[in-house]
Fold:
Amino acid sequence: MPQKPKTACFFLGILLLLLPGAYSQSTYLPSGHEWHDFVQRMEIKSGGTGPGFHFALQPLERKSMVEFLEFVDTTNQRITATDKNIIYDIIQSNAEWTSRKQDSSRRPLLRHFYQTPTSFYQYHDEELFLSINPVIHFETGMEKGRDLWLYQNTRGVEVRGMINQKVGFYSYLTDNQARFPQYVNHKIQEQEGAIPGEGWNIPFGEQGYDFFTARGYIAFQATKNIGLQFGHDRSFLGFGKRSLLLSDYGNNYLFLKINTRLWRFHYQNTFARLVDFPLRTYGGRLFDAKYMAAHTLSFKVSDRFQLGLFENVVFGRSDTLSRRGFDAHYLNPIIFYRAVEHHIGDPDKVSIGLFWRWIAGHHLSFYGQVYADDFHIGDLKYDLDSLLTRVGFRSQRKHDKHASFRNKFGLQAGMHWVDMLGLSNLDFQLEGNWVRPFVYTHFDVDGSGQRPAANYTHYSQALAHPLGANFRELVAGLKYTPHPDWQFQTRIFSARQGVDSAGINMGSDITADYTTRQGDYGHTFLQGDKRSWMIFQVETAWQWRPNIWINLRYVYRNEELENHDPQTTGLFMVGLRMNALQREHWF
Structure:
């Protein structure tokens, strides 16, 4: 068996060599944290940000976030009293990155705990900053037409800190038991038993699941402009509720990130080890490995306009003869991946993307994405011929072919309106996503008869949009924050998808081998049996104490599949969250 490159050890060696000259390093917000939305609101209210702040690359660095919010707090005359109070609360919760005095609790617990309102235990001197907080999420409710109570029972701990003002570290550990709505159970079945956003699990009680969540990393600045992060977590790329490039929908994965910030540029390299769950080519207990490498270049063209380029390669080529590790060709942090993939024989899945946002005035922003993992210019003449005929510019078509499966791309367009209609702290967001058939799919490279390892998934979960491909979606959300401790939200998700018909691969299942399609042409948008659904959610949240929220929410979901009876459900849930994120199921 050939020697595999020891990717993680190689980069950790670089990390240790660079450590003595390191600069102060921040930890990051947890993926999906609500503060991301607030920071974006502040960007729009400010009419843009400085050249060094790139919101699209999430999760955000705490240090950069605090610096930006302190600047907004002292210079922006447009922010509301509620905004200023939320900024104050965020800075209090990230005291290691501010010179402002941190509040002291009136009645600390046993003298050593909750000395500050935002941390269960905090220690800070010249050598060490340490913050430890309990994580609790208790939620229960009922689903229409079901006798069993739904519940979420999460207990754990969150630890973050910094050593010698040079090395940052973060760890999040929770034990969880949950009983999900039926539509989530169906999604778990589609994902070979993987819970959305989680990994390994076992049955618990009646129709419940028991699972463990673990995230953690170390981070440091190698130079003033270059930072490294190594650990187990996930990322999100873009400005919307969804991402067609890289989302935080799926399970955590092992990664190494190199962040290079220079002038108006933020260049990010990501190298990741994924899991091809539930495949075990060699038997035993080890799931097959797959890998991902990505380059992301974000450019602040101006304080109002951010433009980004993205390229990605996914590869995993275990077969019955050998297990192949990380391909050393993809370790080059600045090369064009398509050229490398051609060089080694075109076995892997390479994709490219584009993202942007323009802030108009101090209330509106417009954003979008383009994703493509295959595109043939030669096929465009067939589609152009078909279009000209349909609109009447030609009496008859010149070509019989059109709608090539090779033109695999997705589009996103959205807008964000803060202080809508002049009403303070009322924000509205509207977003559309369109993805053609066979996007994110690949083929069986080794002819093993198993699903392709290089599809755009990890742990049987999409690395981009949870719906897969061959769909259109409209997302609308309204959020009102009349007081720092009160939030009211409503969201609507409406989607339509073409799914497999009579066992024929129509391009919606991103784990399927795209060579099982019928022909190369005639693959139109939303082909196949039509599946449509609508999700409507209303939520009220009250912050009882810092980072302790009490939630009430109602969810209505309707799903219809061609030639099947509609499936409608309603959920009412009440919960308590302490230093925990709301678990969302928007699919």
